[in-house]
Amino acid sequence: MSDPPAVRLAGVSKRYPPLTRRGRLHSLKGALLHGDLWRVKEEHNGFLALSKVDVEIAPGETFAVIGPNGSGKSTLLKLVAGILQPTSGSVEVEGRVTALIELGAGFHPEISGRDNAIVNGMMLGLSRSEVMSRLDEIIEFSGIGPFIDQPVKTYSSGMYVRLGFAVAVVVEPNVLVVDEILAVGDEAFAHRCLDRIAKLQRRGTAILLVSHDLGLVEQLAQRALYLKGGVPVLTGQAAAAVARYRSDVATDEAGGESAGGSSRRWGNGAVTLDQVELLDGNGRPIRLLMSGEAAGIRLSYTVRVPQDDFVFGIAVHREDGSYVFGTNTDLDGWTPERLAGSGQITLEFPRLELAPGRYLVDAAVHARGGLAYDYACEIMSFTVTAPVGWPGCYAARHGWNPRGPVMTPSSE
Amino acid sequence: MKSGVPKAGVLSSLYRNRGLVAVLVARDLKARYRGTFLGYLWSLLNPLLLLAVYTVVFTWVIPARVTSEVPFPLFLFAGLLPWGFVSGALLDAAVVLADNGPLLRKVVCPPEVFPAVTVFSHLVHHLLALPILLVAIAVAAGNGLVRFPWTVVLLPVVLFIWLVAVGGLALAVAALAVHFRDLKDLLHNLLNIFFFATPIIYPLEMIRVPILKRLIQANPATPLILLYRDVVLLGRLPSLAAWGWAAAVAAVFWLTGSWIFSRLRETIAETV
Prior knowledge:
heterodimer, A: alpha/beta, Rossmann fold, Coagulation Factor XIII, Chain A, domain 1, six-stranded mixed sheet, globular, B: mainly alpha
């Protein structure tokens, strides 16, 4: 983490002043005589939308904010985008930030799509010449074709949104703030959006994403913040935050049986697992793995109470619950001696020959007798890709050898 | 570049966003006459028709002789044109932030851009109407009714002073109107009062009651309108004191307006 963070929020709180029938100021008299107008920032009542949030997002990282409606997600985005100012704490953003909060916001209905694209691009921080040089790309990506010179009021809502998105992504921001926009547009457009976002990720754009589509969050984001009622509940790996949120929702729906904490994670806390990561053959964290490549699963832990009886275990299963593989240090013949401080242990696979699809990882550290120090279900997920969509969960290296049938293999 | 809390002043922000302001002004003008047959000609036609009506009314219907120097329709027109610039810009400034609410709430967009766009597009309209006044003065001069005011070369300086003054007022109005919705209605009445409290339809010398004259002289809009009319119509070179007084008014308006705006700037997006 030598790079300076692209976004840094330190102790950020946001309080909305109470809105009375007349607006935020209680009276004209108070505003003029007591100077309420100049001191609107020092509100102490009102609605606390966000409370003491700390977030750091590295360049190229995708960070998601999840939580129920009204938990302050959009407020957080607007603070990062610079649309709102925090009541306390500091928001630092490195470089150009573009907000995709409402696509096509501020298009003027009477003006042509081309002119609106120019105005919109300049609002997002490009100079006129920069917009002009990217205009062809915008028009191409939006797929609006000859309608680009028609007034925007004649556009369908889909065209409107496509043009808005096309403008926003050619800006090539350092920080991209995305609010639920992938919910709009048709399937094909959603794919183009995702493809474009992946391109930005590779370019080193830090992306801050709000979505209720938890599958999308796990797919796109490395880390996530789970907000509830404006209070940060958990910041961590996307899968862990999503799992916590899902279990909270499940608990709420079940009538609050196991109040507090995730039912999918337990243990006495003598040792805690801080992070579970999938690594490629060079030890770099990844989320996407080619079937048959070398890989590792690394557990980072912190010890509160030193132990001489401990076992590290990992289990991999499919989303439908089918068990794929599991092992632990005890099974593999490692005798525990001493565990203290903090450290890491990696389970290495010279070739991870899994069938393409999504896999969930449980990780645990426990005593040999079974007493859990920390047992985390579905703490991490990863996706395996393959050139062919083999079914099953084991993609053994294989080849066909026809002696009789007349067949030709594909050139590849 | 840290864009966390931009502490830069309104002026430097506007300078940085000058390209955006220019494009938005152009968009305003384009949208205004979109779909009309005469297009930009309306900017010329509106004042021309107004001048024609005044000429008919005040030459034949009510033969007004309030000033001996120039024909009254011209006198009136030279006052109404700049007043139209002020009142139009301020009335639009009162609603411009509310109208652009979606942009302020959903896009990273500096709010000071919008009052600036309002002021500049009204300035452009004023500049489009100005040739009508100048041609009318030239025609009157050709008929020996007036001498052509060569002081008109100083008009750019006067317009700059006006721009600063109107800009400051528009910033204040725009920011305050976000918090007081009443301001819009209040402004209508204030502008009406000031219309009559400023020597627009009468010359200052016509007032006989000393205290009333003192009051109208103290009106900050008075030096601005006098300066404008001296230069563009009456052909008088304004005294240094007149220049200084008008410039001081403009400077105070600008400083106050931009101060109010920057104080309220952060609360605009969440209130609008």
